[in-house]
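Dear colleague,

Following up on Tuesday's group meeting, I ran the structure prediction for the two-component complex that the binding team flagged. I've pasted the input sequences exactly as they went in, so you can double-check that nothing got truncated or mislabelled along the way. The structure tokens for the whole assembly follow below. Feel free to forward this to whoever is handling the docking comparison.

Inputs:
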Amino acid sequence: MKVGRVAGTVISTINIPLLDEHRLLLCDVHDVEGKPSGYTIAVDVVDAGVGDTVLILDEGSSARQILGLDHGAIRAVVVGIVDQLVVDGEVRAID
Amino acid sequence: MQLGRVLGSVVATEKAPGLEGIRFLIVQPLDKGSQPNGETVVAADAVSMAGPGELVYFVASREAAEALPERFVPVDHAIVGIVDDVHLEEE
């Protein structure tokens, strides 16, 4: 899993049927310094909002398990909202 | 999943079994500001409606084949949706 931050949302009408029932969040993926090192578009299962620091799962079979699916083209899922991050014994500020 | 811009299409008559009837499009991956980022890829069109110039999002790796009717096919990128709008927080 990765730590990231919700930067926005993606709106889509035409998509594979599986994605009809899910919100898509555009998340910055953070490196260990807390700086953005890329982004991913992830399915939201925790009602995260823009600006939240989140835990992002990026692996297909785990993603399908969370969503209760046997099959499906889903890999990235926002699975948690981060309350606190401690790196090298220091509490990292979460905005 | 990543954002991408459809640049064109690929037509191939001879294909591996299971790829019949699937459209292949050339996609330029984009960063979150919709600027080109990285090398173009050939992606299967799982929505069957994407066309040149369109802003799409695509899934990579094993999950790409999951988007297609036949799930065990040699495909590593698949377009799974057409983007209407991207809302980014104001920085």
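Strands of chain A lie at 2-11, 24-30, 36-44, 53-58, 76-81, 85-87, 90-92.

Cheers,
M.
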